Amino acid sequence: MSTTVSPSQSVPAQTAAAPLSGVRVSRALIYAALVIFAALFLIPVYMVLVTSFKSIDQVSISTMWNLPTSFTLESFQRALEKLLPNLINSLLLVVPATVLSAALGSMNGYVLSKWRFRGANIIFPLMLFGMFIPYQAILIPLVQFLQTIGLYGSIGGLILVHVVYGLPITTLIFRNYYAEVPDEMIEAGAIDGAGFFGLYWWVVLPISLPGFVVVIIWQFTQIWNEFLFGVTITNTASQPITVALQNLSGSQIVEWNVQMAGAFLTALPTLLVYILLGRYFIRGLLAGSVKG
Amino acid sequence: MNRDRVTAILMLTPSVILLAIFVYGFIAWTGYTSVTDSNLRQQLRGETAEVVGLKNYEDLFTGLLNKRFRVDMTNTVFFTILFIVACLGVGILLAILLDQKIKGESVFRTIFLFPMALSFVVTGVAWKWLFNPTSGINVLPTVIGLPAGQFQWFISEDRWLPFNWHDLGFYIALILLGMALLFTLWQWSKKRSQWAAFGAALTLLLLAWVTLGDPRSITPIREDGHGFNVALIALVVAAGWQMSGYTMAMYLAGLRGISEDLREAARVDGCSELQVYRRIIFPLLQPITLSAMIILGHISLKIFDLAYTMGGGNNLFIDMPGINMFFTTFRASEFGRGAAIAVIMLIMVAVVIVPYLYTQLRSETHL
Amino acid sequence: MRSSKWFILVAALALMLGVFALASAQDAQPSGDLEIFSWWTGGGEEAGLNALIEKFKEMYPDVNVINSAVAGGSGVNARAVLQTRMLGGDPPGTFQVHAGAELNTLWVAADKMEPLNDLYEQNGWMEQYPQGLLDLISDDEGNIYSVPVNIHRSNVLWYIPANLEEWGVTVPATWDEFINETCPKLQEAGVTPLAVGETWTQVHLWENVALGVLGPEKYNGLWDGTTDWAGEDMTQVWETFGKVLDCANEDMNALTWQDASRMVIEGKAAFNVMGDWAAGYFLVDNSLEPETGFGWAPAPGTEGVFNMLSDTFGLPKDAPNRDAVVAWLSFLGSAEAQDIFNPLKGSLPANTEAQIDDSELYNAYFQNAYEDWTSNTIVGSLAHGAVAPQEFSSPFNDVIAGFQESRDVATAQATAAELAATTMTAGSE
Predict the structure, then answer these.
(1) Handedness of CA C356, C361, C364, C370 (dihedral sign)
(2) Domains in chain C, please, with CATH?
(3) Are B146 and B173 within one domain?
(4) Nearest-CA neighbor of B166 among B220, B206, B227, B228?
(5) Structural domain includes residue B125
(6) Nearest CA-CA distance, residue C72 and chain A, Å
(7) Distance of alpha carbon B182 from its chain centroid, rounded?
(8) Mutate: best of B56, B65, B315, partner C, most C CBs <10 A
(9) Pair B65, B211 in one domain
(10) In a domain, B332, yes or no
(11) Domain carrying residue B14
């Protein structure tokens, strides 16, 4: 499997063929490059953490790269104070919206992959287009629509919006996932007398767990991180955490330590999901490019 | 089985109806709003908006007051190009590095990909602090005793590559001229004298147009100075930091899909490692590059949160159409004009996405 | 004795009535949620609002006050949120709005506000508020639509006296003096002559340059159509503004107004033109004494003119929990509330019954400013919604941002002139 001449044990023959020192040097260069890139990628993390553990009088220009002289959780406390209601809003939003859009996506994916019908080839791409549009293009009617049905400014309205605009990606992921399920399994179930729902319940759903994990992680991350809907169709009481964080950074006296602590708090849930379930996260990521 | 098929369609129907309303219905509604003079004052008073035709669009491209929109278009073009180049470059580099049987590969991969899990707002807040010209990254060199950096990052007012939308017609004419010339030479070299003569005539005609005529006059866009705003570099760095892990993941998946046999065969044929990449691997990765370009491109065309968090909405050097739409609609309360900006954004994205969706779904054989 | 029996009866009745009255008063006590929408999220403003809310809660313990403050300089973000909410049919209980065009041309013109004349008469405010201020918050029929909490002055030039002495400069009386004498001298000494912040502070600076160059009469003419935006006077305004910006810090777009004020405090810059909310910043946040620690003067060329703005709160139609809102507004307009709020926020009380002479409450700056308020020519602020409708002021931000970058006088003047021509008529309907 080795691609370059490798000093590792896997391909000893090649190692012997190549001049040893050159190999070592190129391996060292590869690792050096990776370490440098990793360090560059981690700079913002370092800065966010270092700043958020400082008290406000320690946050000064000349020492901003230094470690805090004394660790304090003061900024986290202050950030949490300001962001807690929004953190709760985000949770209240994310959980139902994720579950609903995953459930609907699973059903849609099942229909589109196993119950192909005339016109599906037109309907599916039309549905899919919905995940690429700039949401500005639907924002003005959306606000008016939500106020007409009385959901403007509420978390309920935000849930509805995220479910609807989450449908294309969840449908896509499930459709591709179920496409891998052999049609024979469905046919076998059908012979046993199962109908549309029976097949879904007894055959498809039991093997859907990995699909659900991918979709749920993806939707959780997307909805948690979303900003545009959060800032336009909520009121102060229902704002999700990203909007509150942005307000924190736009506030008049810039307390960088509190802001950084706020940024960290906002990032924490999705980061945890990513670190714990990264494999599935990447699958959702790649599904976004339609075929992956 | 037939009844089940009906059930299946019925189960899909709610989603289809929802998307029909929320995507296509609303787009149509926005399209209609964009040809009216709808604004907050009218709506608050319960008056109906008047249809004004394409006036909003005309204003955006030619109005003295709407320079901001033309700045945004310039920024979008430069940002999109740089963002895609940065993400593809860093992404493929990281993917190739990680493909070398690296110990601790998963750790590196985790590090390169974690920004994808963050909100653009978080990225914006963090990088705004890092880009603060009097602190942040600029101070980093002083840690090892070097002088502090002087780059102003996202508040830089420098502008390179001056250009003017109004000159677009001129550039188009030049490109046409060049194409005609090449066509002539090509036909001439093939000894097809008739075609060559036709090409030469066309070339002369275009040359006359460029020199004697005024190709600029075909561009219906107001003449005001634009250029590459250096402040965009800050935005590219932040966005690239967030998104290049994504291209890395795509490339890595692609690299893992290339069988080792193929590489081995090439090596046996005497290809050096570099040639293996150039002749075998890169060509095989081309479809991925295209996918990545389109995904990244549509993200950059509609970028909002990141630029808004970093620029706060008034920094025109990193302003984007998405922010302009937001402010025109929700601050200046000019719904008609906001809708027009939204429609233009949609068209830009659709031009990229629709052909992509078409080819992606068409080429599906297994479904 | 009969009379004593009667007395007892009457007393008992009176007592019962009293109890009933008390009980019913208890019933009339507003309760429920009261949402107060503002952009007071930092420093003295936040402290002032919190002190008001605290006092209000003492008076009406059953009301649950929700402080919906939206961050973002000068209320830009807050207004965006407010508009969306009002359009969404979801008004807050009461919201902060600048007196003048911002209130009249939008909310009142759209018939979204309840007149408050009854409230004014019940509380005797008709006599307690200056007529000029009442005019700003009334329509042509004399309906009053909001309750002013404070008065701010926009045209103030701030400095640190000791620093000026050290650098050997004096307070410039005109913008010409600033550009030709003060600025070069300071630049030679390596000091930034003028500290400026993000775009809205540049608009704020612009209005005071315009006021200084034009004088109050022509400045007012900008808003009633008698001064020609394309005329020579305005060319001079833009030229002067460009030269003033040349004397300012280059990183202005990255700074908040506090950052700009801090440049003055830290001795990096000599002057700063900012509204007198900056007094609170100098005094409270940086513990500087008025007159000795920090100094002020009218912005160059504006001696004898008071460029004002006022924060007010109104009662939107269909406000949730109207009773609580009315109770809040009654409290807000009282001299007592204004004496709680203004010393903390750092502003003048709008109610003339307030204890302005009490130096415990109002420091030397405010006593001085109050004198000017009552004796100067009054004009209204552009940057803070007093004189121009939002259709003008919001795109004008872009004009200033564009000019700040290009310093192109002709374009900026032409753009502003066109903007004025297309939007200012809308404001005067």
Answers:
(1) negative
(2) 30-152+309-373 (3.40.190.10), 156-301+388-427 (3.40.190.10)
(3) no
(4) B220
(5) yes
(6) 5
(7) 30
(8) B65
(9) no
(10) yes
(11) 2-34
User: Are B340 and B275 contained in the same domain?
Assistant: yes
Number of H helices, E strands in chain A: 12, 0
Search chain C and give the residue with CA nearest A236: C68
Q: Is B65 on the interface with C (CB under 8 A)?
A: yes
pLDDT at B350 over 80: yes
Q: What is the pLDDT of residue C426?
A: 44
* Subunit partners of chain A (3 or more CB pairs within 8 A): B, C
Q: pLDDT tens, B212-269?
A: 888 887 778 888 888 898 999 999 999 999 999 999 999 999 999 888 888 888 888 8
CATH top-level class for A76-287?
A: mainly alpha
**Dihedrals phi, psi of C192, to nearest 5 degrees:** -70, 120
**B contact test, residue of C204, C253, C257, C428 with most B CBs within 10 A:** C253
CB contact under 8 Å between C72 and A146, yes or no, is no
Domain membership of residue B49 (yes or no) is no
Which tokens go with C421?
Answer: 């021509």
Residue B11 lies in a domain: yes
Which pLDDT belongs to residue B16?
A: 96
Show the tokens assigned to A60: 């000064």
Selecting from C70, C88, C89 the residue whose C-beta is nearest the C-beta of A247 gives: C70
Residue A231 has pLDDT above 70, yes or no: yes
ipTM for this prediction = 0.87
What is residue B366's predicted lDDT score, i.e. its pLDDT? 39
For residues B302 and B216, is the Cβ–Cβ distance under 8 A? no
Please tell me the total count of domains within chain B.
3
Establish, for the pair of chains A and B, how many residue pairs have beta carbons separated by less than 8 Å.
Answer: 292
Nearest Cα residue in chain C from B129: C254
Distance (Å, whole) CA C172 – CA C182:
7
**For chain C, which chains pass the contact test of at least 3 CB pairs under 8 Å?**
A, B
- CB-based burial label for A31 (10 Å; 0-12, 13-18, 19+): middle
Do the Cβ atoms of A236 and C37 come within 8 Å?
Answer: yes
Point out the residue among A232, A233, A247 whose CB comes nearest to the CB of C71. A247
And the tokens for B178? 């060049």
B152 and B168 both lie in a single domain: no
Q: Could you state, in order of their start, the residue ranges of all structural domains in chain A?
A: 76-287
Residues of chain B positioned with their CB less than 8 A from the CB of C104: none
Give the β-pairing of C94-98 and C269-273. unpaired
The alpha-carbon gap from C355 to the nearest alpha carbon of chain B, in Å, equals 38
- Residue from the list B119, B126, B291 with its beta carbon closest to the beta carbon of A47: B126
* Side chain identity at residue C9, one-letter code: L
CA distance A186 to chain B (A): 12
Nearest in space to C355 (alpha carbons), one of C128, C154, C120:
C128
Say if A230 is an interface residue toward chain C (CB within 8 Å): no
Query: Residues of C with CB below 8 A from A254's CB?
Result: 256, 258-259
State pLDDT tens for residues B20-72: 999 999 999 999 999 999 988 888 888 889 999 999 999 999 988 888 899 99
pLDDT digits (tens, 9 = 90+) for B81-131: 999 999 999 999 999 999 988 899 999 999 999 999 999 999 999 998 898
The residue-averaged pLDDT of C307-312 equals: 95
Q: Which residue of A has its CA nearest to C285?
A: A253
Q: What are phi and psi of C305, to 5 degrees?
A: -120, 140
Residues B140 and B171 in one domain: no
B269 lies in the same domain as B179? no
Max Cα–Cα distance, chain C, nearest Å? 98
Q: Which of C220, C211, C230 is nearest to C413 (CA)?
A: C230
H or E segment and range at residue C157: strand C156-159
Smallest Cα–Cα separation from B334: which of B30, B39, B37, B36?
A: B39
Question: Which one is predicted more confidently, A205 or B158?
Answer: A205
pLDDT at A61 over 80: no
**CB under 8 Å, gap of 24 or more: what pairs does A19-27 form?**
A27/B100
